[in-house]
Amino acid sequence: MQILDIIKKKRDGNELTAAELQFFVTEYTKGQIPDYQASALLMAIYLRGMTAKETSILADSMLHSGDVLDLSLIPGIKVDKHSTGGVGDKISIPLAPLVAAAGVKNPMISGRGLGHTGGTLDKLEAIPGFNVNLTEDDFIDQVSAIGTAIISATQDVAPADKKIYALRDTTGTVDSIPLIASSIMSKKLASGTNALVLDVKTGSGAFMQDFDDARSLAKQLLDIGQAHQTKMVALITNMNQPLGVKVGNTLEVEESIDILKGQGPEDTTKLTIELGAYMLVLAEQAKDIQTARTILQEKIADGSALAKFKELVEAEGGDVRVVDNYQLMPHAKNQIVVTALDDGYVNAIDTNDLGMLVVYLGGGRLKKTDKIDPGVGLVIHKKVGDYVHRGEPLVTVHANSFDDDQVQSSIHQAYHLSAVQPPAEELIYEIMEE
């Protein structure tokens, strides 16, 4: 079997067999297929798509490219959450300790930044000393001891996904539904989870900008989960504007802590609680969603969610003092306030453009070897539906090196003002279950 034949077959729009997909995953993981040929196949998949059968086989091949963790010694139903990513989406960081404080065992294997969206691991590494590279044994021990852990996939857990994930970021193949679905499910199933809550984002700042595409992705994810006897729920959520008010690694950790202190923005707080409520119900820690919401709100109010976050940070080597002193994390040297050029309501925001501005400032990756500058980012002052007067701040840009004209132009082009207030934005569009 030759990889060139497989590339040509998919290029021509034909269905790949289980043997061909398994060959690709196995040989690429071993380093026998070079990046340029793997990239060619990924682009062929991006352009030609995959059948449901192919996607399920690809996910299963990536899942079994390494170890599948056995968490059976940890009592209870293990529940994880995954987001398809968006600008300002820091929900995993407050969510993991919040549900752990409510008694849910949450083993979370997370990823790094892809394209215009930030990665949970990059954000957590803004905390001095935070180590996401735990061994499998340490991961299991930590989940058992404190209820949660957020780590990078080890070399032994879904190693194929780790290689393909990094390559997709630099080859223009990030927003492929079958590649996203197989990547998510291989990693999540390999982590030993029993149930999974999905946050599938749609809108101008999401990989799936079209609602129907987001729904299709959710359906493929649910189908793969069902084939592996994993209980799942998918929420399709709004990414037509940044989530919360802070974008960038350090800034998003700050907002995450604010949520756990009960001081977070309304949208990020609401989505954290809503996703957490479904996790509690799947874990059989609450009889219904409303009961689960009440439990989580109480965990924030009584300080136990914040205390659990401190446990998480300490367990993974981070400096717990950041909870009370955000200045212990890296910050950019410069703050550029970009103001409105006209009066009007914010009618729309090109959220992808804001995400890419953070990438160009150093807060994301244009190629997989790029270093992240954790201190750069954006603080959003005006969101969709807000009225702004000429000269009022739209965004404060946190930067180290920058071109002032480019920064100003990027923000002004991303914001669209009108004389009429637009309808209120929904946060959650649809909930899909198996």
Automatic annotation (TrEMBL):
Q: Name one Pfam family in it.
A: PYNP_C
Chain coiled-coil ranges: none
Instruction: Give the record's subunit note.
Output: Homodimer.
Please give the organism: Amylolactobacillus amylotrophicus DSM 20534
**Example GO biological process term?**
pyrimidine nucleoside metabolic process
Q: What class of enzyme is it?
A: transferase
Q: What is this protein called?
A: Pyrimidine-nucleoside phosphorylase
Assigned keywords, A-Z: Glycosyltransferase, Transferase
Keyword Transferase part of the UniProt annotation: yes
